[in-house]
Specification:
about 230 residues, mainly alpha, 6 helices
Amino acid sequence: MRVRIGYAAWIVGVVQFFVVHGIAESAWTTPYSWAHNNISDLGNAVCALQSEPEPRYICSPEHGLMNGSFIALGVLFLLGVALTGGALWRRGPAAVAARVLLAGAGVGFALAGLAPADVNENTHVLGALLIMLLGNAGLVLTGFVLVRDVPATLRWGGVVLGVVALAAFGLFLSRTYLGLGMGGMERVAALPLLAWALSVGVHGLTDRAARASRAVPAARGRLGHGG
């Protein structure tokens, strides 16, 4: 049961984040752009012209809702890392390191919501570093530390996503956006982690459900044979 809760926490955390993201961006009177606005712009508490890292006007009426979503995502992400345990992770120091790094990303999401960029920039930047540096480093490790029951596409897909996200984070910091815009490059750095968590959560729940459904007829067959 606890493992199912862990997988469900990842699914609910990611889904609610994107739902609230859509609600918050739709509330803007000036157009919100995935290419030219940071994700955290949705959580800024005050309407103002922002000059860094790129000039843009930020006014997010649903900033409270968005920051609550960041916090919820962080808590649920941490819960997933804590509860999936031996069902998902191998034993050993590498697996522990991966889970600690991913837990750091959960803390980062929560910090991003607790400290909007225009209220406490230093704490907000720390949250972003935890997500896009530690979290993505943990994502790279997942290919080597997940149990073999996890499909290779999820194990090695995590490695690929982590490497791409880390490279995008470096490009984002250097303000090299490759035509994607500031917000687009930030999303390439931040969203692969969520895509991985959602995919693993869905697979974990459906796989366990399929195993349970196969186990019931088998058990009945053994009971019938024994009778």
